[in-house]
Write a structure and sequence with these properties.
heterodimer, A: about 600 residues, mainly alpha, 16 helices, globular, B: about 200 residues, Four Helix Bundle (Hemerythrin (Met), subunit A), elongated, disordered N terminus
Chain lengths: ~600, ~200
């Protein structure tokens, strides 16, 4: 137990990230099921408007910040050091700090579900209820007097610190900790996409931090940054939020694209088609991702010039994305394909992401988008890219790397059940939303009129949501049952080409007995141009130093939610206590003996 | 999960040269500075977006004291010079000079903070508070965030100075001083931008 609390081992931190994020994924899914049950028929099942607002706000916030990002982070932690031939990340304690901040931030936001009595709210739940993008001036003290929005804005600030710390850590890890010979264009595509993601994180998160700080000043200290009454402009919030929010979309999808770019070559027994183009497309997506934010704001009246520019850049970003899709199909083409569950999910990713991408292009046109804004069409789009894209990609990665992470193979039979139920469920759930949206069903309503003619579509969506729920339970069971299996996975069960497959499953604490020297992009494969890398020795020829554990990352992290609790309660001493804990933690951390 | 925890104990120091030849901490710090650029960029943009949109006074031209702030700016620039001298002294192992210039850098930082404290209280006295108008809100949040960064820098410098007094800082830790310097110079550069945008271009 203590060794897990103080661990600085990237593999253990990866597993902690995985199980924590997967738990939040289940919570977010439960919220989705409640939403869908309420919407199954026009009059609902009695969920109140207030509760419904909390459910969709927490569903979005949880899935984006507490499930998808940290599930990617689980793979960053576990896989990247192995893929680049390193013994750990550049800053093992900072890595532990990121995890603890993420966990505590997630618990802080979710504590709002039961914190009502502490605030005399007259109801149990005071969960955030202003939507996951928290538009001004709905979030003002005037229109949201309770602590709900405070939980949201303080919790997201905490989570931002976790992401930023991990961002700096992984940029340095990927650039600086590579094994000899691992040049940039020999990096596995997953690590490449992770690197681009980290650059997006360290540039996008400061922007939302500023937005949240300004909102905090509005709510706690009476400024008017987003309040028209004092000359402020609610549209500024939208700009700041989406300047973060659109790069965030690529923060969510690029890791999944990286996973798919690993899985397809392995199970086609072919190198990734156009590796260099895939890498540069990722870079182009990241650059363009910074120039499209206002397509979320066409309905706010930006004027024809801004609308045209952002419509153009948005259509442009479809090009590098399309390039990648053709490269993935080209990888499969003529390959010796093995239809494992990991490959099925990767192929499912391509198909579903194309649908989400096409509806995305339809938003790029400002006049079309005006018809779609705030309807279920947008809900359909976001779920095709984030569920059909990110989640299917992450599932593919789970089947692919689970044996490496635990030494145990997931059941392929249950995997196929999981895959088909997921595919059927997600298309039943999300495809009808295109129609209900185009027929005029607004998003975020808790009941709707039977005359709207969308009751049938909604019922199908609800049935689909429950099919997804069942599929996820099948997967959860499949994960759990591996715990009782013996550790039998061979080092390279899929005959992969990258360095993580050169070492035992699960890897020993020091990862590599000797740091390999990399001579080409597919070290474990014998190709026309080169032979396979010689196997590493079974035992380290010399003793290997592995950094020990530390309590200070967790203690330093604990100061942050303490500050937030003090701010929530408007009680300065608790804020100062949190500050003191963090400062003491940083000093002890900086001066504790910790050999790298 | 089974892990062989005994290997934690098997400690043989193993110097790991970095791939890019750049110290890990230094590279992380450059990434951090890149991130900070976006933080200050967002705050400065907010200031510029709201420029001239205050509904009531006091307005910037009525209250900003350019001569006084020029002095503060000069002081902060000189602190960067002192920081350079401190780093050079530590690198060549001259800890006597190193201690002196670390202290001077921190004290010049404190003078800047004192000036900012005087300026803030003077503005409040003149009727410009945090919530008076958009100018007040954007001004105090922007310069306050910068001031918080200077405060962190002063604490950091004093920590190094105390370490040096205790004989625990030497040429072997020159990288620590260099990174502190990176931070300090960055905060200085941000102030040059703020001084130009807020004070000089009204």
């Amino acid at each position: 137990m203590k060794s897990w609390l103080t661990t600085t081992d990237h593999k253990r931190i990866g597993l902690l990230y995985f199980w924590t994020a997967f738990s939040f994924f289940m919570i977010g899914g439960l919220e989705a099921l409640l939403i869908r049950t309420q919407l199954a028929r026009p009059a609902g099942i009695g969920v109140s408007a207030e509760t419904f607002n909390q459910l969709f706000t927490m569903h979005g916030t949880t899935m984006v910040f507490l499930a998808l990002m940290p599930l990617s982070a689980a793979f960053f932690n576990f896989i990247i050091p192995l893929q680049i031939g390193a013994r750990d990340v550049a800053f093992p304690r900072l890595n532990a700090f990121s995890y603890w901040v993420f966990l505590l931030g997630g618990l802080f936001i979710n504590a709002s579900f039961i914190a009502g009595p502490l605030f005399g709210a007259g109801r149990l739940s005071v969960a955030p209820d202003a939507g996951w993008f928290g538009y001004a001036n709905l979030t003002s003290r005037q229109f949201s007097p309770g602590p709900n929005v405070d939980f949201w804005l303080l919790g997201l600030q905490i989570l931002g610190i976790a992401s930023l710390a991990a961002g700096f850590n992984f940029v340095v890890t990927i650039l600086n900790m590579r094994a000899p010979g691992m040049r940039m264009l020999r990096l596995p595509p997953f690590t490449w996409m992770a690197l681009i993601t980290q650059f997006l994180i360290i540039t996008a998160f400061p922007v939302i931090t500023v937005a949240l700080v300004l909102l905090m000043f509005d709510r706690f200290f009476g400024t008017h940054f987003f309040l028209p009454a004092g000359g402020g402009d609610p549209i500024l919030w939208q700009h700041l939020f989406w300047m973060f929010g659109h790069p965030e979309v690529y923060i969510l999808i690029l890791p999944a694209m990286g996973i798919v770019s690993e899985v397809l070559p392995t199970f086609s027994r072919k190198p990734l088609f156009g590796y260099t183009v895939v890498v540069y497309s990722g870079v182009v997506i990241a650059f363009l991702g910074w120039s499209v934010w206002a397509h979320h704001m066409f309905a706010s009246g930006l004027g024809p010039i801004a609308d045209s520019v952002f419509a153009g850049t948005t259509m442009l970003i479809a090009v590098p994305t399309g390039v990648k899709i053709f490269n993935w199909i080209g990888t499969l083409w003529g390959g010796q394909i093995r239809f494992t569950t990991a490959l099925l999910f990767a192929v499912g990713f391509i198909a579903m992401f194309i649908i989400g991408g096409l509806s995305g292009v339809s938003h790029a046109s400002a006049p079309t988008d005006l018809q779609q804004t705030d309807t279920y069409y947008v809900v359909a789009h976001i779920h095709y890219v984030l569920f059909g894209g990110t989640i299917l990609g992450l599932f593919s990665g789970m089947y692919y790397w689970w044996p490496k992470m635990t030494g145990r193979l997931l059941s392929e039979r249950l995997g196929k059940v999981h895959f088909w139920l997921t595919m059927i469920g997600m298309n039943l759930a999300f495809f009808p939303m295109h129609f209900s949206g185009l027929l005029g069903m607004p998003r975020r309503i808790y009941t709707y009129s039977p005359e709207l003619g969308v009751a049938g579509f909604n019922l199908v969506s609800t049935i689909g949501a429950f099919v997804i729920g069942i599929a996820t339970l099948v997967f959860f069971w499949s994960l759990l049952r591996t715990r009782w299996q013996p550790v039998t996975a061979p080092p390279n069960p899929w005959e992969g080409a990258t360095l993580e497959w050169a070492i035992p499953s699960p890897p020993p604490v020091y990862n590599f007995t000797v740091i390999p020297t990399v001579a080409n992009r597919l070290p474990l494969w014998a190709t026309e141009r080169h032979g396979a890398m010689a196997p590493l020795p079974d035992r380290p020829p010399a003793p290997i130093h592995v950094p020990g554990g530390s309590w200070w990352p967790m203690i330093t992290a604990a100061g942050l939610p303490t500050m937030a609790i003090g701010a929530l309660a408007h009680f300065l001493p608790v804020v100062l206590l949190g500050v003191a804990v963090t400062i003491v933690g940083i000093y002890r951390w900086a001066y504790e003996p910790f050999e790298m | 999960m089974r892990y062989d925890t005994d290997t934690h104990a098997a400690a043989v120091a193993h110097g790991h040269a970095t791939f890019m030849g750049l110290d890990n901490r230094k590279m992380a710090f450059w990434a951090f500075i890149g991130s900070e650029c976006l933080l200050f960029g967002s705050l400065i943009s907010t200031y510029l977006v709201y420029k001239g949109r205050s509904l009531v006074g006091p307005y910037p031209h009525e209250i900003l004291n350019i001569p006084f702030t020029s002095f503060s700016t000069f002081d902060l620039l000189m602190s960067s010079l002192a920081m350079v001298l401190a780093l050079a002294a530590v690198q060549r192992g001259d800890m006597k000079q190193g201690k002196l210039w670390l202290l001077v850098t921190a004290l010049l930082g404190l003078v800047f903070l004192g000036g900012q404290f005087w300026e803030f209280s003077h503005f409040v006295h003149e009727g410009l508070g945090l919530t008076t108008n958009l100018f007040g809100s954007t001004f105090f949040v922007l310069t306050g965030t910068h001031g918080a960064h200077v405060t962190v820098g002063v604490i950091w410098l004093l920590t190094l100075w105390i370490q040096a007094l205790r004989g625990k800082l030497g040429p072997a830790n020159a990288m620590t001083v260099e990174i502190t310097g990176l931070y300090w110079h960055f905060v200085d550069v941000v102030w040059i931008v703020i001084f130009t945008v807020v004070y000089l271009i009204q």
